[in-house]
Amino acid sequence: MLRKDLAYAWRTLKKSPMFALTAAITLALGIGAATAIFSVTNAVLLRALPYRDPDRLVLACPDMTRRNVRDFPFSDANFIDLRDGSKAFFEDFAAVNTGRGVVPREDGTPEQVRFAAVTPNFFRLLGARIAVGRNFTDADGLPQPPQAQGAGTPNAPGSQGAPRLPTIAILGYGYWQRRYGGSTVILGHGILSAGNAGPRLRGVLPRQHEH
Asked: What pTM does this model have?
């Protein structure tokens, strides 16, 4: 019976090719839209976030919608005020500011990468583990003494005698594999090339934290 129904449907569609094409396109668009909607719903609403105690996480953002500004970051002073003034309600606060930057490849050609500047407690707050190397420590976020002339990269003009912030990085697993072939030799060294020392690599996130 099913074979007869399929044969009848095929003969009918063969007699009306434009109708068959329209039906196929409509089905393809419908299936594609349903798949996209399910993927977003699954990632945002159904699947648990890959963090420790995700139901206890709160995201705080500055509210400047009246100025039509939606991505303005907290200043350092505002973050410190928010953190110190909310200790009775939250166990910990961490800051993150994401963006895109250009770094040189091994041959000197530019490559655009995604990055995030974070406070040293960021990965500890999220419960993320480090697959290779070590995590940030509180000391990593403290200003460092001025770098002496002739001992590496010189200070920028006008910065003589000024403390400098440490430049320490933790890489995502995929970038570590693609750029350095999974080598641990890079740990403790600058992660850029073409004459740029760049931030020193201290650790690598596990594969499951790639997004």
From this structure: 0.64
